[in-house]
Amino acid sequence: MHQARRRFGQNFLHDPQVRQAMISAIDPRAEETFVEIGPGHGALTRPLLAAGVRLTAIELDRDLAAALPDACGGDASRLTLIKGDALAHPLSGLADADQPLRVVGNLPYNLSSPLLFHLTAEPAAVTDLHLLLQKEVVDRMGAEAGSRAYGRLSVMIQARCRVVPLFEAPAQAFRPAPRVTSRFVRLIPHDKPPLPGVDDKALATVVSHAFAQRRKTLRNALRRILDAAALERAQVAPAERAENLTLADFGRLAAEYQRNPTPAVR
């Protein structure tokens, strides 16, 4: 029996009711193209392949990767296995020209934020994402301005996707059981970007500076990239704090940064 490895953040789903609820929410159809992040023992891999999909699974743990094809039996003919780090594989490189990807995964808690930023970085390549995550992370993704959970993850994910929390999964649904509750979430890339014309990298720069020390006023938090005149043009009060800004506010700040990306104060 494979022993869960802490360095990989492994908590394997074993509850059949939770697994079936996830598959029902995903609603896989034959000949759709899927990418699964961290298939582990194949709890989702097997029912996805049984539904007739074409699946690329990315597994960092080489022992698990070696055992996965046998675990999938005859359906393994539609399985493409990549042994390595999902962060090293852009989704656009895995998509067919005529069919965007559907992404699924039970993401390791210790890498959830980097993986979320990576998996949502190319929204045109993805139809939807169904991910099992720590409940706190899902709460942060969908948080509204002014709430304690609102932060960098909230702004960047909402700029790329619509966040649809689905249901919770108790710790007992996993082996080993984590110390937290998990939540299954659906992310749907926006057909029309909510911040048209705003460069993703510019937005990421502004958001990172704004939330680096969230108790700072924007005048101080953004002083190295945006001066007072830029804040005024963006219609954002210099004394305001990042946690109170809406997505549209951040969009206007990012547009100002795009126009003049040189440091405001050296």
From TrEMBL:
Enzyme class: transferase
Subcellular location: Cytoplasm
Entry keyword annotation includes DNA-binding: no
Name of the protein in its database record: Ribosomal RNA small subunit methyltransferase A
EC number: 2.1.1.182
Described purpose of this protein according to its UniProt entry: Specifically dimethylates two adjacent adenosines (A1518 and A1519) in the loop of a conserved hairpin near the 3'-end of 16S rRNA in the 30S particle. May play a critical role in biogenesis of 30S subunits.
Domain Ribosomal RNA adenine methylase transferase N-terminal: 18-191
Family the UniProt entry places it in: Belongs to the class I-like SAM-binding methyltransferase superfamily. rRNA adenine N(6)-methyltransferase family. RsmA subfamily.
Organism whose genome encodes this protein: Spiribacter pallidus
Binding positions (S-adenosyl-L-methionine): N11, L13, G38, E59, D85, N106
UniProt xrefs under Pfam families: RrnaAD
Superkingdom, taxonomy of origin: Bacteria
GO molecular function (one): 16S rRNA (adenine(1518)-N(6)/adenine(1519)-N(6))-dimethyltransferase activity
SUPFAM superfamilies given in the database record: S-adenosyl-L-methionine-dependent methyltransferases
Substrates-to-products reaction catalysed: adenosine(1518)/adenosine(1519) in 16S rRNA + 4 S-adenosyl-L-methionine = N(6)-dimethyladenosine(1518)/N(6)-dimethyladenosine(1519) in 16S rRNA + 4 S-adenosyl-L-homocysteine + 4 H(+)
NCBIfam families on file: ksgA
Keyword vocabulary terms for this entry: Cytoplasm, Methyltransferase, RNA-binding, rRNA processing, S-adenosyl-L-methionine, Transferase
